[in-house]
């Protein structure tokens, strides 16, 4: 083991352990055994887990050069580290050689391949097939004598090693953000497996979805026989990536090192880019740094799943398995097939034998299908009614007074506890056809109480009163949910009970072409409605609360439980709307498939409840005269005081959410809102784009990167200044890596800093209210910046939204009143996005139209008329087309002016015209 003592030695007190009794009283990595849900993560099979990392440099104008490959593995209570140095530029390490060396040093028993060899030759032609019989012998001579025909390669006898005769060794190679590391192996030699072709890129990491059979030759010199080593290992290899198991906001190796208290080694500034120089000048420092980076992923994985235990593909896939087990107990089922039928309404249907694609033979083809036509109908409607989170901006500009960023506490877990299990054997309670819905449809006839979260899914058309600022029925347009006032121009949309009920409370007219109220599953033992998802969420939330108290916030126990809680919804909704990913194995796009707990009904209801709560809050805030300028998935920014917000009944939704919070917190709290940020200098510019300079204020970058520490003053200042000074898309720098697909196709791995740009303009999910536009000036240190503030209203229809969205693309920037004047000018003229053939002519002509529309001044055009004017214009004309008097007349027509180019495209020419004669 590397340490600070010279080049080190194995110091036992530096080796962590998860079982003090068997490891000489060494400290544990994490107390997962004390929590039911965490303990379930540690049920993987035993295997050899090897941490892996590489160091490389980029010589000037050259491709990447690997300096070393580092590995770490735990044997008994010892942490062993291996570093392979690159001897020459031509030398490259193969995966097989690295594994052979490590397995030799671990003392793993290898196999003499001479004992598993067989010899084959071709015999006589078999009449029934017309092909020659393949004969198998124990020795070469017998096979040679029996040969009737040579193989295609000219050989009489082929030597075959039957590795199925020996026990394969399970090995799990774990790295962090491993695309660069896995591609660093020699994968070009015929004797080396091209391991990257068996991998998949998931959550920023590189993993295998199935074990890969690898034959690894032993390097142990004691087995040498005449200069060659006949011993080998049969390995079932899996590749894992700790980036797929890291909590949100803690995806760096440095962050994971802090979590497991094995800090990443810090080098002096400038060393990282000159690691080859460090290796020569200070090898001890090089080894300490390099080797440490293979230990961190090893220990992080061990802290979660246990030492030398198989690692799941992702933490979310592991969570799905844990949740499924809890739900099976709640549903009183003891096998997967019954769970599929009871919870998901699915059964396995067989389709006969099909040829295997990975080895010879056949396998039974099966698929999951709904258990009945009624179940199929409900599942189809639910999948169509499933939409993502609610994200939108409705008030744009500068807000120099106190605003708060309110969070809907545990929004999705809270909503999950409100969704009951479906009785898939009899899923439809009642059907509605071709009639207007009323609140009576959502009222319990037994007690007369309105149920604002009724389990209903229907195909509806709608119209909200013009007074409703925030309509609540989503319509998906090109993958984006918007909330228009009407469904005008559409036959209808699929929607869920919570949003339909809220729409009726807001005075909307909702007509249902066809819809279904869904039956709840009744627990046979208790006689009550079954809530299996609630049982799973409760256990995770309670465990997290205990872990937070016992181990503290940001402990490994609390962080993993937090990640598990937040990932349940994602697994519940996985592939409800079909998604595909690129497969290295097939070389094409493949369906990612559902998770173990995917359920379209619960998924669509959960998102509908959360959206309805947020939209109810926005409408009631607006009714009280408060603004809500931005909403993102589980919260919003507003100027409503906390006590006022908490007093809102949310049209009946507050009480049901409070009951769920009481259940989750074990009667400790009913609060559904909490303040996440507060500020008095808010600049809100688009969805997921807002910033305050205050350390406790909001800071959402709209996807851009400042290059400074996240949420630092420098980071906030960069974002605010970029937004307030922009006259087009905002440039930013980002580190890009070679795409996984390109690596599979043979490209060299590369990481390079590139400049990208992104528009920071209002995204047009709502209609800008033209009458509300006001120019404001925002102070930033010693400067004032101009920014337009305005309110919005819902679009009347999808077609109106599409018209505004398309028109936005015809202008370069929407920051100042002048920018918006051009937008409104093009709106009035109903401009299009037609692309010109002669760009030079179009640029010049746009400048003249811009002048004639009164949007700018060109001094010489104020002085000249007639032919003199045309001649002057042509003196600036290099398009090859003559500007004439008719062109001047046409430039003044509204139907021509609608196609003025964006300002940035004509800016240089406009400056040229304006400066001539001045």
Give the oligomer, counting copies of the same chain as homo and different chains as hetero.
Answer: single chain
What is the helical fraction, as a range of percent? Answer: 25-40%
Number of helices: 27
- Derived from helix and strand composition plus strand pairing, the structural class reads alpha+beta
Share of β-strand residues: 15-25%
What is the tally of beta strands? 36
| Largest beta-sheet details | 7 strands, mixed
What separation lies between the terminal Cα atoms?
A: 76 Å
- The whole-number mean of residue pLDDT values reads 90
Overall shape:
globular
Residue windows where pLDDT falls under 50 for at least 5 positions: 1-18, 20-27
- Rg from Cα: 33 Å
What is the gist of this entry?
By secondary structure, this protein is α+β, with helices and mostly antiparallel strands.
Structure description:
This protein has 918 residues and is of the alpha+beta class. It is built from 27 helices and 36 strands. Strand 2 and strand 3 (78-85) form a beta hairpin. The protein is globular and about 100 Å long. 41% of the residues are buried.
């Amino acid at each position: 083991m590397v340490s600070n003592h010279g080049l080190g030695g194995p110091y036992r007190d530096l080796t962590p352990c998860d079982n003090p009794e068997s490891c000489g009283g060494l400290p544990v990595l994490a107390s997962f055994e004390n929590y039911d849900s965490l303990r379930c993560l540690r049920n993987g099979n035993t295997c050899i887990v090897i941490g892996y990392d590489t160091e490389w440099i980029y010589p000037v104008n050259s491709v990447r050069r690997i300096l070393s490959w580092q590995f770490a593995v735990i044997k008994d209570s010892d942490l062993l580290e291996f570093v392979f140095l690159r001897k020459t530029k031509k030398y490259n390490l193969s995966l097989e050689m690295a594994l052979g060396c490590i397995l030799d040093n671990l003392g793993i028993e290898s196999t003499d391949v001479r004992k598993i060899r067989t010899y084959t030759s071709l015999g006589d032609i078999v009449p029934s097939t017309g092909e020659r019989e393949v004969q198998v012998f124990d020795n070469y001579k017998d096979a040679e004598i029996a040969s009737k025909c040579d193989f295609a390669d000219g050989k009489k006898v082929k030597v075959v090693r039957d590795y199925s005769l020996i026990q394969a060794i399970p090995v799990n190679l774990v790295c962090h953000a491993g695309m660069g590391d896995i591609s660093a192996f020699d994968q070009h030699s015929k004797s080396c497996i091209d391991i990257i072709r068996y991998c998949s890129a998931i959550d920023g990491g590189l993993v295998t979805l199935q074990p890969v059979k690898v034959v690894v030759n032993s390097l142990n010199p004691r087995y040498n026989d005449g200069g060659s080593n006949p011993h080998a290992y049969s390995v079932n290899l899996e590749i894992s990536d700790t980036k797929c198991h890291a909590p949100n906001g803690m995806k760096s190796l440095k962050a994971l090192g802090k979590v497991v208290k094995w800090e990443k080694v810090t080098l002096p500034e400038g060393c990282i880019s000159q690691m080859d120089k460090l290796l020569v000048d200070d090898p001890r420092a090089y080894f300490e740094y390099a080797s440490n980076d293979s230990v961190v992923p090893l220990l992080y994985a061990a802290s979660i799943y246990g030492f030398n235990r198989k690692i799941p593909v992702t933490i979310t896939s592991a969570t799905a398995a844990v949740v499924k087990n809890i739900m099976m107990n709640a549903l009183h089922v003891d096998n997967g097939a019954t769970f599929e039928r009871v919870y998901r309404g699915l059964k396995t249907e067989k389709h006969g034998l099909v040829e295997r694609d990975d080895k010879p033979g056949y396998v039974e083809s099966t698929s999951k299908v709904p258990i009945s036509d009624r179940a199929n109908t409900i599942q189809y409607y639910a999948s169509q009614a499933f939409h993502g989170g609610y994200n939108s901006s409705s008030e744009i500009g500068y807000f120099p007074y106190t605003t708060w960023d309110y969070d809907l506490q545990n929004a999705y877990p809270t909503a999950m506890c409100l969704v009951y299990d479906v009785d898939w054997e009899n899923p439809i309670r009642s059907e509605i056809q071709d009639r207007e819905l009323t609140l009576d449809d959502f009222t319990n006839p037994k007690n007369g109480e309105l149920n604002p979260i009724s389990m209903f899914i229907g195909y509806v058309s709608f119209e909200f009163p013009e007074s409703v600022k925030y309509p609540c029925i989503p319509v998906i347009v090109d993958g984006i949910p918007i909330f228009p006032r009407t469904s005008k121009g559409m036959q209808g949309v699929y929607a869920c009970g919570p949003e339909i009920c809220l729409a009726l409370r807001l005075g909307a007219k909702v007509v249902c072409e066809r819809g279904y109220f869904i039956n709840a599953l009744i627990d046979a033992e208790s006689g009550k409605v079954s809530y299996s998802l609630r049982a799973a969420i409760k256990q995770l939330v309670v465990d997290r609360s205990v872990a937070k108290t016992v181990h503290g916030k940001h402990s490994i126990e609390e962080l993993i439980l937090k990640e598990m809680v937040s990932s349940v919804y994602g697994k519940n909704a996985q592939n409800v709307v079909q998604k595909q990913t690129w497969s290295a194995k097939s070389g094409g796009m493949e369906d990612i498939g559902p998770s173990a707990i995917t359920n379209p009904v619960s998924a669509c209801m959960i998102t509908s409840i959360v959206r309805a709560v947020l939209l109810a809050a926005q409408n009631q805030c607006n009714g009280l005269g408060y603004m809500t300028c931005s909403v993102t998935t589980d919260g919003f920014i507003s100027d409503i005081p906390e006590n006022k917000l908490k007093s809102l009944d949310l049209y009946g939704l507050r009480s049901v959410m409070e009951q769920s919070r009481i259940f989750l917190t074990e009667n400790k709290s009913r609060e559904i809102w909490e303040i996440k940020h507060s500020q008095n200098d808010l600049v809100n510019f688009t969805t997921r784009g807002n910033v305050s300079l205050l350390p406790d204020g909001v800071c959402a970058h709209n996807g851009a990167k400042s290059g400074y520490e996240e949420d630092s003053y420098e980071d906030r200042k960069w974002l605010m200044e970029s937004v307030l000074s922009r006259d087009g898309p905002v440039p930013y720098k980002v580190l890009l890596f070679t795409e996984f697909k390109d690596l599979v196709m043979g490209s060299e791995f590369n990481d390079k800093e590139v400049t990208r740009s992104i528009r920071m303009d209002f995204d047009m999910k709502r209609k800008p209210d033209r009458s509300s536009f006001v120019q404001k000036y925002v102070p930033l240190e010693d400067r004032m910046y101009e920014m337009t503030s305005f309110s919005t209203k819902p679009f009347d229809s999808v077609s109106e939204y599409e018209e505004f969205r398309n028109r936005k693309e015809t202008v370069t920037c929407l920051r100042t009143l002048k920018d918006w004047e051009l937008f409104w000018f093009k709106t009035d003229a109903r401009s299009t996005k037609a692309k010109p053939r002669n760009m030079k002519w179009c640029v010049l002509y746009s400048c003249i139209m811009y002048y004639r529309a009164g949007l700018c001044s060109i001094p010489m055009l104020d002085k000249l008329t007639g032919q003199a004017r045309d001649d002057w214009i042509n003196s600036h004309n290099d398009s090859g087309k003559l500007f004439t008097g008719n062109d001047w007349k046409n430039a003044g027509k509204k139907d021509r002016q609608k196609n003025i180019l964006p300002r940035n495209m004509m800016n240089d020419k406009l400056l040229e015209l304006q400066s001539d004669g001045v």
